[in-house]
Design a protein that fits this description.
With 254 residues, the chain is mainly alpha-helical. Helix content is 69%, strand content 0%. The chain has helices spanning 10-24, 30-36, 42-67, 73-87, 95-105, 110-115, 121-136, 139-144, 152-166, 176-199, 203-232, 246-249.
């Protein structure tokens, strides 16, 4: 049993969480480095955008699950902004719409992307495990799992600069999703960090907060592992999108 007399201070807990990011965040993954350094083939960028859509599309569903578990009205008001950011306040707005503009530019039909028919099994399992984690664990753990946003502004800067420098088939317009995220992520991370610090009242609960962030890092890492296996090493699993199979992906007759 953890000794609660050893409870971490707020600064110590934040330092532990930031250390998780330094050691486990997916900016360290070899696929991330390949993508941002210009090492990816066009089809690998396509596969990344197609599979990442599923993660983006499930974020507001995950956030809606957490929203129902927040008992304080002000907490709900703050958390609701996350759903609005991704879904938008009207049709044609929001982060998911901006992500679809990226997949549009890479030759996929929207119907195909939204269907998630071509995503990797590893993508689906990782994303759905994240949603389930936020549904079944304590609300403090669910909120803490979102703290990868502490580190996302840096990876977004690397991603946009690297992709614009190395890939002629992307532009500032097609990468518009990322231009909106840094201020949103900063706001959301500040809320989540304060919430975790306030609600993890024992050392044992603080350890669960750290574990929640480790789990989320694993969710992101597992998605890139799947991409590497399928599209760098060429072991595309049955049913997943195959590079060069553009007819169906574009909504054309085969």
């Amino acid at each position: 049993m953890t000794d609660d007399s050893a409870k971490l201070t707020a600064k110590e807990l934040e330092a532990r969480l930031r250390q998780v990011g330094a050691e486990r965040y997916h900016n360290l993954h070899r696929f991330h480095r390949r993508l941002h350094s210009g090492g990816c083939a066009y089809e690998e960028v396509q596969a990344w955008a197609l599979n990442r859509y599923y993660y983006q599309s499930m974020i507001p569903i995950k956030d809606a699950t957490v929203l129902t578990r927040l008992s304080n009205a002000e907490d709900r008001r703050q958390w609701r902004k996350r759903i609005e950011d991704h879904d938008g306040l009207r049709e044609g707005d929001g982060g998911i719409e901006r992500w679809l503009k990226l997949t549009d530019s890479l030759g996929f039909s929207r119907d195909y992307v939204i269907s998630t028919e071509g995503i990797l099994p590893g993508t689906r399992f990782a994303v759905e495990a994240y949603v389930e984690f936020c549904r079944t664990r304590s609300v403090t753990e669910a909120v803490a799992s979102s703290l990868t946003e502490l580190f996302s502004p840096n990876i977004i800067g690397e991603r946009v600069a690297g992709m614009l420098a190395h890939y002629s088939f992307v532009s500032s317009e097609t990468l518009a999703y990322f231009s909106q995220r840094p201020p949103q992520a900063k706001r959301d991370a500040e809320f989540a960090l304060n919430f975790a610090v306030q609600h993890a009242k024992t050392r044992a609960e603080q350890e669960l907060v750290v574990k929640a962030l480790e789990f989320k890092c694993s969710v992101l890492w597992a998605q890139l592992d799947s991409l590497w296996s399928a599209y760098v090493e060429g072991a595309v699993p049955p049913g997943a999108w195959e590079p060069g199979s553009v007819a169906k992906a574009r909504g054309e007759a085969a």
